[in-house]
Amino acid sequence: MPKYSFATAATVDEAVRLLNEPEVRSIPLGGGTDIFVALRVNPLWFDRLVDITHVPELHHIGVADGVVSIGAAVTFTQALESELLQGVAPFLACACENVGGPAIRNSGTLGGNVANAAACADSLPALVCLDAVVHLLSPAGERALPISEFVSGPHQTNIQPGELITHFSFAQPPAGARSAFIKIGRRRAQSISRLSIAAIGTTNAGGAIDYIRITPGAATPKTIRFTPVEDMLKGQPPTRELFVRAGEAMSAEMISVTGRRWSTPYKEIALKAITERVLAAIFLQEAQPC
Amino acid sequence: MTDYRYIGKPIDRVDALEKVRGTARFVGDYHLPGMLYARCLRSELPHARIVKLDVTPALQVPGVVAVITSDDFIDHGRFGFPISDLFMLAYEKVRYVGEGIACVAAETPEAALAGTKAILCELEELPAIFDMEHALDPNAPQIGPAREDGKHPNFLGHFPVYDGDPEAVLVDCDAVIDQNYETVMQEHAYIETEGSLAIPTVEGGVLAYVSCQSPFIARGHIMRTLGLGETAARVINPPVGGSFGGKDDLNYMTAGQVACLALKTKRPVRMTFSREESMIASYKRGAMRMRVRVGADKAGKLRACHFKATYDSGAYSSQSPFTSWRASIHAMGPYRYDACTVDLTTVYTNNGFAGAFRGFGNPEVYAGIEQAIDELAEKLGIDPLDFRLQNCLRLGDTTPHGQTLTESVGLSDCLLAVRKASDWERKRAAYAHQSDPDRRRGIGVTALFHGTSLGAEGTDEATGTIEIHQDNRVTLTSGLTDYGPGSRTVYCMIAAEMLGVDIQRINIHLPDTNLAKDSGPTVASRSTMLGGNATRIAALNLRQNLDYAAADLLGCEVFQLQRAGESYLGPSEEPVPWEVVVEHARRMGLVLSTFGRWSAPKIHWDEEAGRGVPYFAYHFGAQIAEVEVDLRTGLTDVLNYYAAHDAGKVIFPQGAYGQIYGGVAQGLGYALYEDVDYMDGYLQSINFDTYLIPTSVDVPEINGSFVETHYSQGPFGAKNIAEPAMVPVAPTILNAIAQATGRRVRKLPANLERVLLGETLHKKGSPVSCKVALKSV
Amino acid sequence: MLIQFTLNNQPVAVEAPSDITLLALLRDHLRLTGSKEACEVGECGACSVILDGELVNSCLVAAPQVSGRSVITIEGVRAPDGGPNDMQQNFISYGAVQCGFCIPGMIMAGEALLLKNPQPTRQQIRVALAGNLCRCTGYQQIVDAIEATAKSRARQRA
Questions:
Q1: Smallest Cα–Cα separation from B357: which of B99, B185, B158?
Q2: Does the CB of B263 have a partner CB in chain A at under 8 Å?
Q3: Among A169, B27, B137, C24, which has the minimal tally of Cβ within 10 Å of its Cβ?
Q4: Confidence of residue B520 (pLDDT cuts 50, 70, 90)
């Protein structure tokens, strides 16, 4: 007897219907890169996998009325190769390029990355910076939650039983916005993020920072924008001195959230460094990997 | 220089075609009708007494066919050499997390797992030792076997080298380094996990396919522990998916378990490990803590070395008496001293267990001595490469062991080769003055000697056979396993060269105890020299018979024979094809199957005096690493790598270069991130998601080269390469990091935290993933 | 359940349980053992296959997920005459094979790369292999073999 059954959804509606059939605990299957790993050691938590990767809408990447939308089944490879995303949110494309190895990027999906909600998930810092909205569909209808509310903690989300993430959306960043993503892993590929940072910003005609979002990854249990640091940066001319202070503020903010942990002596120094670098990449056009 | 047809020339590996097509059958690829799947119940405690072990409930589980314990083996399956402290399955006690207690054979892997869970096993936890420094405390719980000599049961051995009194010399030195260094355990991380398949034979014996380092050792253990005669147990090595020293003891247990189950069930039984089971159950490279004192005079002459270390063998001795001995022999590095003492003590703990791993103790000691030498050069203000050149062993020198080196000493040439290839002087000078606050480069060097083959560890000989079949194909056998490095190709090249025939005629059997002859284990980088010489002699014996036939056919003396391609020529005759000579030899009644045995030159070691001739020859080498360190995140990139090795004559170039590249990669992981971390005996990284080995983007382009000294006793002048390429990599990279950062990392690995902070951060571990994995995957 | 798909350019229909991976389907049900099982968590790439033109870890693909799709395994990589193709021959010639356990996955990764990027740099080759672990070779001769293949295929196209 198979431990679980399998169904394939051809449309979003069919996926939602399958996920909500009574008596059958069903979960959506995207790339499988988290589910099959977890299945090895966790007790079975579902009766059926519902393959959503054949649903065309879930692979859609597009922009309409200034709102960018990314389907939940978009793979990391599709995201990083998307000219649209490379244009409007290059740091998100860059984050996707930093995920796993080629095969993982070909299978793994953004929907899965967010639903799995690991503190070290590579796509989260950029999505959080963008204040992305998670769109959910269930028989009760559509629901939209800001990503920072959707992800409630490490491997914890506010998804309700039977809900399907259909897509993410975010307002197109201001014209001229530059973004960057930096990841520290223990090795150069297939590496869990030790620490990462995503940021996006613009300067005004007077040269002062007028728009800035900055989010570290693997720094706090739940990936969040460090708004006190954003406030500190806003209205200031972008200088190295400012970035140094921003780095210190980032570390202080991280410690205020997490307290001092075993890894704090490392992360408080490294976070300062990548904060300075990510800001220099955006505002001083300094080159960074991808 | 002799012009060879095959030796030293590019050639296709003999087993490459089946491997690139995916048709090579590794153990896990075998499927037989009626085959059962075996799985072990493994200990979830690091040290415990087995109070109750009742397997009968497991036999009630649907699909379970048989269950065995240590009671199913003679003398409870006790084995191990040189110390017999292992059992085919745990007897009376378990000493590490993951130790096999009972083994279930079932119709499916799922049923086998269910069977292990149904076994009633009651363990009474015993106090354990996880810190090697406390293993020999008077009140320490007993882990090792009881001893009759009054020594502490956790004492495994003491391994000294004595040459004069370094204490007296050190006080006289102008500069002295006195530092502690530490290495951690390393996982072999062969990509193929452990596996064995046993098939009961018609006459009541067993045929086993075992992924291991010696089919003869596997057969020996099966015979002794199951009471089978030599002919009743046959072991074949299918292709082995990597080993690096790792498929010795544990896989002999696996082989013994499936053999026992096959006899019991009269059905084929296969066991293959999941990655998690492999990592939890398998032995590792041991961890070492060293205090190294080295001194020199102002002019840069090395004068004294006092090397003191403790080595953690974990729960069992396995190969540790041998690894410890090899480590002690090389612990002072490849240098001349006025006085030298090595003092190495090996102990038992409950941290898994340690055994053979590429380099066999030497990557551990080199992480100490080759950093200390660098620190001493720095203290003296001497270029570290010049310092090594000034003091390194040269032809005619006498080593601290008392051995005079009479031939094949290419160390200084290796140092010169990497100096040139790397543009050392310019880079070393440039990197001494850097101002970038974020990223800095460094370049570091090491020198190496590494004894070839087993050394005075044991009897050192190998046997090869060669046979011409009726269809004129030529078949070789060797008892030595080729788990990747390419020895089977080397033997075919040697045979073709010696016989003067096309290599396409030659094929070589998989190692098979019924066809080949025992040649000892494939360890210690001994295959080319030992097995190569055996093949060479076997081929010479065959060649002699063919020469008689050719001379008879051509009506001349043997010394008048010449060759034109495969054909034979006499003084006046037309060429005679090789096949015709072979046919004539048959008619003359000459035997066309021969064998060759080669015994290594006699050597000796006095364990008490710490002196002797430990190895009959040495491999020498020098390596240079160039790194860029991110000073603000601790991330180290190895930008370039240079390795020059004196392996004697290189026989199989692609294979030899492959050993350099692979050795450097494996050492790079050891240097920068590989860390087998036991938390109170529980392994923390149990799969490749958290136990990181280098990927293709972590390893730089490697500049490898050979200094081909000729070694008179080696086949065509060859020595060895497999282990030495890996041995000095970690200190090479650490020396480069030290130049880049101005700070030393003296404990491996030089991970992000150690490089950035200069200290180790301790994450609180958990036994959970280990325990869950033992019961699930 | 019945799983129908295209395997190495041939249609197949196989009855298999719904709860297995593509790797298990290939190895245990179709007896194609060239794809190797080594970590089962998508970290080592020994099980790599090409699914609809893209490299995937078959240990992380649900077997029924390939219904109606095209799978190429190492058994489907060969020259028109049935012998080794140029990539495989280059792996042999350049000494890229040692123990060989990772090699089927490496060849799939190499072929998948050349489908997308016929003329990669050595660094691009390394990036394309980053999900395929090898413990024997240090990757260098594998990179050599793929680079040589790309170059010779480019010459043939020209």
A1: B185
A2: no
A3: B137
A4: confident
Taking residues B526-553, what's their average pLDDT? 96
Q: What residues contact B621, with CB distance under 8 A and at least 6 apart?
A: B411, B414, B447, B448, B450, B643, B644, B645, B646, B724, B725, B727, B728
Measured between CB atoms, does B749 come within 8 Å of chain A? no
- The CATH number corresponding to C2-75 among 3.40.50.2020, 3.30.470.20, 3.10.20.30, 3.30.530.20 equals 3.10.20.30
Say yes or no for a CB contact (<8 Å) between C93 and B655.
no
CATH of domain A57-171: 3.30.465.10
Supply the ipTM of this predicted assembly: 0.98
| CA–CA gap between residue A168 and residue B536 (Å, rounded) | 69
Residues on chain C touching A40 (C-beta within 8 angstroms): 40-41
Instruction: Name chain B's partners: 3 or more CB pairs within 8 A.
Output: A, C
CATH fit for domain A178-283, picks 3.30.390.50, 3.20.20.450, 2.40.30.10, 3.40.1280.10: 3.30.390.50
Is the Cβ pair C138, B663 closer than 8 Å?
yes
- CB-closest option in C42, C62, C131 to A29: C62
Q: Is residue B621 within 8 Å of residue B417, measured between CB atoms?
A: no
Query: Is the domain covering A5-51 a CATH 3.30.43 domain?
Result: yes
Report yes or no: B651 and B739 within 8 Å, Cβ to Cβ: no
Most B CBs within 10 Å: which of C99, C123, C124, as the mutation test of the B interface?
C99
Which residues of chain B does A263 touch, with a Cβ-Cβ cutoff of 8 Å?
753, 761, 763
Residue in C1, C59, C112 nearest the CB of A36: C59
pLDDT of B506 strictly over 60: yes
pLDDT per position as a tens digit, A94-115? 999 999 999 999 999 999 999 9
Chain-chain contact of A270 with B776 (C-beta, under 8 angstroms)? no
- Which CATH number does the domain housing residue B242 bear? 3.90.1170.50
Q: What is the pLDDT of residues A82-98, one digit of tens each?
A: 999 999 999 999 999 99
- Model confidence at A290: pLDDT above 70: no
- CB-based contact B693:B189 (threshold 8 Å): yes
The answer to whether the CB atoms of C40 and B274 lie below 8 A apart is yes
Distance from CA of B708 to the nearest CA of C (A): 20
Q: Give the model confidence (pLDDT) of C30-42 as tens digits.
A: 999 999 999 999 9
Question: Which of C60, C109, C127 has its CB closest to that of A36?
Answer: C60
- What is the reported pLDDT for B266? 98
Q: End of a domain among B544, B567, B599?
A: B599
Residue contacts between B and C (CB atoms, under 8 Å)? 180
Could B661 and C141 be called an inter-chain contact, meaning their C-beta atoms sit closer than 8 Å?
Answer: yes
Closest Cβ–Cβ partner in C41, C77, C137 for B688? C41
Q: What is the mean pLDDT of chain B?
A: 96
SS (H, E, C) A74-117: CEHHHHHHCHHHHHHCHHHHHHHHCCCCHHHHHHCEHHHHHHHC
Domain coverage including residue B502: 461-599
Residue type at position A104 = I
Report whether pLDDT(B622) > 70. yes
Q: Which residues pair with B234 in a beta bridge?
A: B207
Nearest CA in chain B to A261: B763
Provide the 10 A C-beta neighbour count for residue B19: 28
Q: What is the CATH number of domain C86-157?
A: 1.10.150.120
The ranges of chain A annotated as CATH 3.30.465.10 are 57-171
User: Does B188 sit within 8 Å of C138, measured CB to CB?
Assistant: no
Q: What length is written for chain B?
A: 777
Three-state DSSP string of C66-97:
HCCCEEECHHHCCCCCCCCCHHHHHHHHCCCC
DSSP code of C118?
Answer: S
* Contact across the interface for B692 and A187, Cβ inside 8 Å: yes
Instruction: Tell me: pLDDT of A289 over 70.
Output: no
